[in-house]
Amino acid sequence: CGHRRIALLVPRAQKAGDVESGLGFREGAEAVGPGVEADVTGLPPDPRTIDGVVGRLLAMPRRPTAILVT
Questions:
Q1: N or C: which terminus of the chain has fewer CB atoms within 10 Å of its end residue's CB?
Q2: The pTM is what?
Q3: How far is CA 19 from CA 8, 22, 26, 41, in A?
Q4: pLDDT, tens digit, for every residue of 36-70?
């Protein structure tokens, strides 16, 4: 059981550690085993646009069952 489609939202700025966080997130999801999908999505710099990003994720046919925001 548990979440099978997980999205990580990170700043698009690509500051130190952002790329590594995304890679580590994907590696961790792969380590859980088959059937776990990890998606890393960049957030625009304006925090007022986060609702649009989340809305697009939730509108997907195979939407994430969990969303993490950094």
A1: N
A2: 0.81
A3: 12, 5, 11, 11
A4: 889 998 888 888 888 999 999 999 999 999 999 88
